[in-house]
């Protein structure tokens, strides 16, 4: 194996490993989107009622998003979290604690992940919003598809190392290309879904929102996957081409 191809293969493997770590961290963390709002100091009966509704498995989209707006919420693919005063009586386990406030999280159930979104959030009589429904489902499923494709590609790459041949890594490159497209699709679906949600549920005054570092990890993962794919395919194709030319020259 030529040193050029071996170097390209090693670099592609490193890029693949980094992108896999970034993608796994992105899927497992809760900071795809973050809201910034003044911390609520008091715990009135109204606030307690809102927190209880937020913790309920039956909380609709409007209910938990309004709480996210008011209490410095963060949203991931699996969980939603808010920052509340420490003296609130809530049975759910706390995750972090600082300056008399604690962060409370609730997981999205599998049924919530595939639940229909409505034209007017929280109003079941308003009709189903198919665009937001499928955007939500895609942003949840595509990262797992991407991660699975990269793992499968890694197995093929391992087989290529065992066989001491670069040709099977063409399949690894194609799988990384598909993984990159899935990651890019997930990011795009998430951005579109957030924008459509904020068109229907306006942010209150003094509340701002921004994409978090979990989202940024997914954004960085996509180009790494594309670069790894290009290197895998180039190394395998060029090595195969030179081997064919060399074999033809020897026969001649």
UniProtKB/TrEMBL annotation:
It is a multi-pass membrane protein. The keyword Transmembrane helix applies. The chain crosses the membrane at residues 6-27, 140-167, 173-194, 215-236. Keywords: Membrane, Transmembrane, Transmembrane helix. It is found in: Membrane. The keyword Membrane applies. Its main location: membrane. InterPro entries: CLDN1, PMP22/EMP/MP20/Claudin. Coiled coil: none annotated. PANTHER family: CLAUDIN DOMAIN-CONTAINING PROTEIN 1. This is Claudin domain containing 1. It comes from Phyllostomus discolor (pale spear-nosed bat). The gene is CLDND1.
């Amino acid at each position: 194996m030529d040193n050029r191809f071996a170097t390209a293969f090693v670099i592609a493997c490193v890029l693949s490993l980094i992108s896999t770590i970034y993608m796994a961290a992105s899927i497992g963390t809760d900071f795809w989107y973050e809201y910034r709002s003044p911390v609520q100091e008091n715990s009135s009966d109204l606030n307690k009622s809102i927190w209880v509704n937020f913790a309920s498995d039956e909380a609709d989209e409007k209910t938990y998003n309004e709480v996210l707006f008011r209490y410095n919420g963060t949203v991931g693919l699996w969980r939603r979290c808010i920052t509340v005063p420490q003296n609130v009586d809530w049975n759910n386990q706390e995750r972090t604690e600082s300056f008399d406030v604690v962060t409370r999280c609730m997981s999205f159930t599998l049924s919530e992940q595939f639940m229909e979104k409505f034209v007017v959030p929280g109003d079941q009589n308003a009709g189903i919003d198919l665009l937001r429904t499928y955007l939500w489902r895609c942003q949840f499923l595509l990262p797992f598809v991407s991660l699975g494709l990269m793992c499968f590609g890694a197995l093929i790459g391992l087989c290529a190392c065992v066989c001491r041949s670069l040709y099977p890594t063409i399949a690894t490159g194609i799988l990384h290309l598909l993984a990159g497209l899935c990651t890019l699709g997930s990011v795009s679906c998430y951005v579109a879904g957030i924008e459509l949600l904020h068109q229907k549920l306006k942010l209150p005054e003094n509340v701002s929102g921004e994409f978090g570092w979990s989202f940024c990890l997914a954004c960085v993962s996509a180009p790494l996957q594309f670069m790894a794919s290009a290197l895998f395919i180039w190394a395998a194709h060029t090595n195969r081409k030179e081997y064919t030319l060399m074999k033809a020259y020897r026969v001649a």
